[in-house]
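for the writeup, i need someone to sanity check this before i put it in the appendix. the sequnce is what the collaborator sent (i think, or maybe the updated version? ugh). structure was predicted straight from it, no edits. if anything looks off just tell me and ill rerun, i have time this weekend
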Amino acid sequence: MSVFISVVSLGELIFGVESCKDPSERALRAAYMRQLEIRPTLEITKQTAASFAVLTASVKQSGRSPRPLYNDLWLAAQAIEHGYEWLTLNIKDFADLPGLRLSSLQP
């Protein structure tokens, strides 16, 4: 089984490194980033954008605000585009999204 990382996730994680003020914690985060950066990445494409739009509209039509979920919706769109299951601990927010196959680790 292949494991990919999204450029969206990389951006969020790099932000965590760049915004860290504690030098030892920043160094630890940077070391983790170097390990993640060698993984194969999933890029954003026109097809990703189309899936993102469908998912975002679905969330809005269900009466919820998609704004707090934007980055997660990009990740979900990438999973749909590539036919992958999306592993998340937050099943409840994404269970009803069209075309998304979910998988969860039980805490």
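The mean pLDDT is 92. The first helix runs from residue 7 to 18.
thx in advance!!
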